[in-house]
């Protein structure tokens, strides 16, 4: 942990810099780009019934959007306002009225005809509801009836047959902590959270290399670093205000490099609304692009290191920070030997980049005195995600870009709550303040006053598979309690996920709105529990940003929805109903303040959280830099270089590697059918123009993308994607991914796959673009099992 404190916000220069403009034509006229002013007016209109409350949320609350982190309209990176359209889009979740009774208890098929965006528009879930097997409608029940039913189920099963899951939808640290404690109190370690499908490999890789599980630096380190690298990350789209930090960085001479298969337009140029010259003329962000193959990052980094070791042979010290390595890093010789044995042809084939281009990047980093690496799901969502991230850490260790100003490693998070989820113990491999190891278990048992089960809990993907185990299996999932989460729209192979959800005896969905997963049947019953948003919670709540800033979000005066309750309170209630006597002794926290006091004891890094109680209160755990001065929290204080072998992806003739990307959406919540940055519709398949020409498919023509896992029906859109690769929108592309394929260290599902692409024979679209379907013989496919076609085989609904 570092001793240096964050230096506070930086001031932007006042004079413009035309050299950074995208175009001298004002407002990007004629260009495909977001229309922030229109989006803002749209938000005002959508929240017109609750505008004062909406304003108070924006000016007093901590953003429930991405994990960049902002309290009110101010952050800790730059002076000036901090607001984006993602936050504005999410506002309606907080200001919407309750779903009318008749809609909530409509025939289940009527609700099932709606997609998640339409369900979201219905409003807030106001009261507990139940739908027994065979019933056509949800029926209102009292909190007592709902909670007693869940408690009775808990008492009737082996705790290994119950599991919890928590999304990151604005959840607070207090909720994660209470869920983590409740799960263990009830005897189960099956508890997981949304980071399992985003950054679990980041935490795993950082831990094994340098002993930390979070960003080592702050956003202020971007500003003025020599090289800022975005790796499989489109921060401009997913963390929009990060573009303002990029602008500030460029004003101090930072070079921005993007490593991504697709030349994402949002990182090419962005019109930053709160910076007048940028709002008018745009800002060029990326200085250079390395369009690696999907799954080619390990080869790419091996190439960079191979070039560095060759430079070192010619002139020691010309590429590596030898002083830093000798003082702080182990494993140099093993890594050198591993890289020496690699063949440049293999590196070029795997990465999709030439030796010369790899050398350019290597030399740029070798010349840099400082560097920050930022990454996202482009690196993590692979069956070798931990190894991908390890390679980035290897680069930082070899160059000494760690534990000092303008240097660092940053897994940038997409959801406001997710950084705190594992730190609070809502994870099968974690407890508050530590890993699920004997030492931490003993420490937490002493604090909590009850015995924690010692068996290893399952990750959420395996939990869902456990629902399909034989009835007499000791881990067959019989009770699934999920706070948020829509697995039908986030996990690979939605058909299989549906079968899992339907095979669980009792499913509990604690949430603020309806989603499609809640409408699936269950063997016995589905219970819906209405939750309060973070802004409604008595005593407020805290959330932790990517840069480890723990912000306090106060309870905000405004309307309250029906019988909705604080989420931490619901978990506490459950614990007390299942084991009342033991809970009276051990589950005593009665308020958000008391929970924060307990967190400070349970998670030593969070000492300070107990003092947060007013709007604007915050602290950064770990100081400005983790591993300050190069000293890592590992047993010997040193970082570890780890040789990583190429995944050796071999493509069949004529096949493409496919991955997913995000458009106008916030995680799985889609807000528009067209991507404002490139105009692509959600059924569009992005492909390099020369690949399209070789296939004889023109822009806009209907295509079928298929493999042995499923089929996706869409339209071809040519775009600057690396050759041999293609991109589809997430989650629509999930029909093509295998289920049950997890990264071995962190358990993230595989979201990349080999596919073939064919022109569709018959494809039509209604003019309103609402329904699209394809009527043609099934494409040739080896071994495609009957029914293996995913949702894409059905008429595919788009917003
Ligand atoms: S960039 Fe992220 S934290 Fe900032 S306002 Fe937008 S959604 Fe919220």
Please tell me about this protein's structure.
The chain has 799 residues and is of the alpha/beta class. The strands form nine sheets. The protein has a seven-stranded mixed sheet with strand order 2-1-17-16-15-3-4. The chain has a six-stranded mixed barrel with strand order 22-28-25-27-26-29. Strands 9-6-5-11-12 form a five-stranded parallel sheet. Strand 3, helix 8 and strand 4 form a beta-alpha-beta unit. The structure holds iron/sulfur cluster (SF4). Residues 63, 65-66, 68-70, 82-84, 86-87, 239-241 line the site of iron/sulfur cluster. Iron/sulfur cluster binds at residues 63, 65-66, 68-70, 82-84, 86-87, 239-241.
Widest sheet: strand ordering: 2-1-17-16-15-3-4
Main sheet specs:
7 strands, mixed
Please mark out the parts with pLDDT under 50 across 5 or more consecutive residues, or reply none.
Answer: 762-799
Mean pLDDT: 92
Radius of gyration from CA coordinates: 25 Å
Q: Which hetero compounds are present in the coordinates?
A: iron/sulfur cluster
Helix-and-strand structural type: alpha/beta
Strand composition percent: 15-25%
- Work out the helix count: 28
Give a count of the beta strands, DSSP E runs of length 2 or more.
32
Shape: globular
- Helical residues, percent: 25-40%
Report, as a whole number of angstroms, the end-to-end distance: 47 Å
């Amino acid at each position: 942990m570092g001793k240096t404190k964050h230096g506070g916000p930086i001031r932007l220069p006042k004079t413009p810099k035309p050299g950074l403009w995208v175009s001298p034509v004002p407002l990007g006229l004629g260009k495909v780009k977001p229309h922030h002013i229109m989006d803002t007016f749209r938000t005002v209109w959508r929240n017109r019934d609750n505008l004062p409350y909406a304003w108070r949320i924006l000016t007093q609350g901590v953003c429930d959007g991405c994990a960049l982190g902002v309290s009110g309209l101010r952050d800790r990176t730059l002076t000036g306002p901090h607001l984006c359209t993602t936050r504005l889009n999410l506002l309606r979740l907080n200001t919407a009225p309750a779903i009318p009774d008749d809609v909530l208890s409509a025939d289940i098929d009527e609700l099932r005809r709606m997609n998640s965006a339409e369900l979201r528009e219905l409003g807030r879930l106001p009261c507990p509801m139940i739908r027994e097997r065979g019933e056509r409608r949800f029926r209102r029940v009292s909190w007592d009836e709902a909670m007693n039913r869940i408690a009775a189920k808990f008492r009737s099963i082996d705790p290994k047959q119950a599991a919890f899951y928590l999304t990151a939808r604005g959840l607070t640290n207090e909720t994660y902590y209470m869920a983590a404690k409740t799960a263990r109190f009830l005897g189960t370690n099956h508890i997981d959270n949304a980071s399992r499908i985003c950054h679990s490999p980041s935490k795993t890789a950082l831990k094994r290399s340098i002993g930390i599980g979070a960003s080592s630096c702050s956003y202020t380190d971007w500003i003025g670093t020599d090289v800022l690298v975005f790796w499989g990350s489109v921060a401009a789209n997913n963390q929009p205000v990060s573009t303002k930090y990029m602008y500030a960085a460029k004003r101090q001479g930072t070079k921005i490099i993007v490593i991504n298969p697709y030349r994402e337009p949002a990182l090419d140029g962005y019109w930053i609304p709160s910076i007048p010259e940028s709002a008018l003329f745009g800002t060029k962000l990326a200085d250079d692009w390395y369009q690696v193959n999907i799954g080619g990052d390990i080869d790419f980094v091996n190439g960079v290191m191979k070039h560095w070791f060759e430079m070192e042979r010619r002139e020691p010290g010309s590429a590596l920070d030898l002083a830093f390595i000798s003082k702080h890093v182990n494993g140099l010789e093993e890594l050198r030997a591993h890289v020496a044995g690699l063949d440049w042809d293999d590196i070029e084939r795997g990465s999709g980049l030439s030796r010369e281009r790899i050398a350019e990047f290597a030399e740029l980093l070798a010349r840099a005195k400082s560097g920050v690496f930022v990454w996202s799901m482009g690196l993590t969502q692979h069956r070798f995600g931990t190894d991908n991230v390890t390679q980035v850490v290897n680069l930082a260790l070899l160059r000494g870009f760690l534990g000092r100003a303008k240097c660092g490693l940053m897994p940038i998070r997409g959801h406001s709550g997710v950084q705190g989820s594992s730190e609070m113990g809502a994870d099968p491999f974690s407890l508050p303040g530590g890993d699920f190891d004997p030492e931490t278990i003993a420490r937490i048992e002493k604090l909590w006053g009850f015995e924690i089960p010692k068996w290893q809990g399952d990750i959420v993907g395996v939990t869902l598979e456990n629902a399909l185990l034989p009835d007499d299996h000791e881990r067959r999932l019989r009770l699934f309690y999920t706070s948020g989460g829509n697995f039908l729209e986030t996990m690979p192979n939605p058909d299989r996920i549906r079968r899992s959800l339907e095979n669980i005896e009792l499913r509990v969905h604690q949430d603020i709105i309806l989603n499609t997963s809640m409408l699936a049947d269950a063997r016995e019953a589905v219970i819906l529990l209405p939750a309060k948003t973070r802004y409604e919670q008595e005593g407020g709540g805290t959330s932790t940003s990517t840069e480890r800033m723990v912000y306090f979000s106060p309870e905000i005066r405004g309307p309250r929805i029906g019988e909705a309750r604080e989420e931490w309170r619901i978990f506490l209630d459950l614990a007390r109903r299942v084991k009342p006597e033991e809970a009276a002794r051990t589950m005593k926290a009665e308020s958000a303040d008391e929970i924060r006091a307990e967190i400070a004891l349970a998670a030593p890094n969070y000492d300070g959280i107990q003092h947060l109680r007013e709007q604007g209160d915050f602290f950064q755990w770990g100081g400005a830099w983790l591993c300050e001065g190069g000293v890592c929290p590992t047993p010997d204080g040193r970082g570890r270089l780890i040789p990583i072998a190429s995944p050796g992806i071999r493509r069949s003739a004529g096949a493409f590697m496919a991955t997913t990307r995000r458009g106008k959406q916030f995680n799985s919540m889609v807000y528009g059918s067209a991507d404002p940055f490139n105009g692509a519709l959600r059924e569009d398949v992005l492909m390099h123009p020369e690949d399209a020409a070789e296939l004889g498919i023109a822009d806009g023509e209907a295509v079928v993308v298929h493999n042995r896992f499923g089929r996706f029906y869409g339209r071809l859109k040519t775009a600057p994607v690396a050759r041999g690769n293609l991109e589809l929108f997430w989650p629509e592309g999930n029909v093509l991914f295998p289920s049950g394929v997890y990264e071995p260290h962190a358990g993230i599902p595989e979201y990349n796959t080999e596919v073939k692409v064919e022109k569709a024979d018959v494809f039509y679209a209604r003019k309103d673009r609402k329904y699209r379907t394809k009527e043609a013989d099934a494409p040739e496919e080896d071994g495609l099992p009957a029914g293996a076609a995913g949702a894409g085989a059905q008429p595919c609904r788009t917003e």
